[in-house]
Specification:
By secondary structure, the chain is mostly beta strands. Helix content is 6%, strand content 41%. The strands form three sheets. Strands 1, 2, 3, 4, 5, 6, 7, 8 and 9 form a nine-stranded antiparallel sheet that branches. A four-stranded antiparallel sheet has the order 10-11-12-13, covered by helices on one side. Strand 16 (274-283) and strand 17 form a beta hairpin. It is globular, with a radius of gyration of 20 Å.
Length: 297
C-alpha cells in the first residue's frame, strides 16, 4: 500500500490533543499518566464583547524568544484541551510567529491567528520588542468574525518560547510544540483533529499520527490518519478516507496502531457488525508501511 500525499494548505489548528513522551505508549480511552502539557507565559486577557476582539498589552522581555502564541478561554498554564475530555466550551486559536524586517532596530514577529477548537474565526498577532534599555514587548492581537457563543468569554493571550516553555527547555514541552504545529497543518486542510499518538522513530526522530475528520461532512465519516516525522508531513494512512477509525496506541518505537471499523455486506453506516481491525503502521526513517489492508480499502 502506498501512502497518499496531500498538499499543505498552510499552518494551524485542532479539536482534541493527546500527547505521550517518545518512550511511553498512548491510549486514547484511558491514559494512566498525564501527557506532557504546553506551559505558556500569560500576556494578559480580555473579554469578548462582539464579533471583533482586540488585545494590546506589554510583557517583560527576557523569557522568549517567542515562537508561537495561543489565544484561549483556558488557562495559560494549560492552554490546550485536556486529553480524554470533550471540553465542549473550549475556544482556542494559535499562531506561528515569524520575524519580519524592521528599519527601527526593533525585533518584530507576527503571525496569523487560526482556529484550533471551538470557533472558525481568524485573526492576527504582532509582537514588537524595542532595543535595550527598554524591557517590554508589546503584544497586539485581533480576532474577526467571532460567533455569538464566544460572547462573554474571557480570552487569555499565551506566549510560547522556542522550546515550548518559558525557559526554552524540557523535552515534553518541546514535543507538545511540535505536535501543535502538525495539528495546525491538519486543520489547515479542513479536518477536525480527534486524536494524536507519538512515538520515537528509529533515527531518534518523532513519529506522529494525527486522526482527523473532514469538516463539513454530515455524518463525520470521512476520516484519515495524517503521519508526520517531527514537523515533516509524510502522508495519510490510506489513499481514500475511512468511515470511522481511532488511534489505538504505539506498541513499539516507530509503530502506531490504527483501529478501523469493519462492515458486513448489508450493514448501515451507523452500525458495523464485524470485529474491528487493527493495522500497525511502521516508520523506518524513510517510509511508512502498514502490516495489512484496512477494511474497505
Amino acid at each position: 500500500m502506498v501512502l497518499s500525499k496531500l498538499g499543505l494548505a498552510g499552518l494551524m489548528g485542532a479539536l482534541l490533543i493527546a500527547l505521550v513522551s517518545n518512550a511511553h505508549r498512548f491510549e486514547q480511552a484511558s491514559a494512566q499518566t498525564p501527557p506532557p502539557r504546553l506551559n505558556a507565559v500569560s500576556a494578559g486577557a480580555r473579554p469578548v464583547a462582539g464579533p471583533t476582539w482586540n488585545f494590546d498589552s506589554d510583557v517583560a522581555v527576557g523569557a522568549g524568544p517567542w515562537t508561537s502564541l495561543i489565544v484561549t478561554n483556558l488557562s495559560c498554564a494549560n492552554p490546550l484541551p485536556i486529553p480524554g475530555t470533550a471540553q465542549a466550551g473550549a475556544i482556542v486559536f494559535s499562531a506561528q510567529l515569524n520575524a519580519v524586517a524592521s528599519q527601527t532596530g526593533h525585533a518584530i514577529v507576527q503571525g496569523d491567528l487560526l482556529p484550533v477548537q471551538g470557533s472558525r474565526a481568524t485573526g492576527y498577532v504582532t509582537l514588537v520588542s524595542p532595543e535595550a534599555p527598554l524591557v517590554t514587548t508589546h503584544v497586539d492581537a485581533g480576532l474577526f468574525n467571532l460567533e455569538g457563543f464566544a460572547l462573554n468569554n474571557t480570552l487569555n493571550v499565551c506566549l510560547v518560547a522556542g522550546g515550548g516553555t518559558p525557559s526554552g527547555s524540557g523535552p515534553a514541552s518541546a514535543l507538545a510544540a511540535v505536535v501543535l504545529a502538525d495539528i495546525q497543518q491538519v486543520v489547515a486542510m479542513d479536518y477536525d483533529v480527534f486524536g494524536v499518538v507519538t512515538t520515537a522513530g528509529p533515527d531518534g526522530s518523532t513519529f506522529i499520527a494525527i486522526a482527523g475528520s473532514k469538516i463539513g461532512t454530515a455524518d463525520g465519516a470521512t476520516q484519515w490518519v495524517f503521519f508526520f516525522n517531527g514537523t515533516t508531513y509524510l502522508g495519510t494512512d490510506t489513499a481514500v478516507p475511512s468511515p470511522f477509525l481511532s488511534l489505538a496506541g504505539s506498541p513499539a518505537p516507530g509503530q502506531i496502531e490504527v483501529k478501523y471499523v469493519a462492515y458486513a455486506r448489508n450493514d448501515p453506516l451507523c452500525c458495523p457488525t464485524l470485529p474491528p481491525v487493527i493495522i500497525t503502521y511502521t516508520w523506518n526513517g524513510s517510509t511508512v508501511t502498514p502490516n495489512g489492508t484496512p477494511p474497505g480499502h
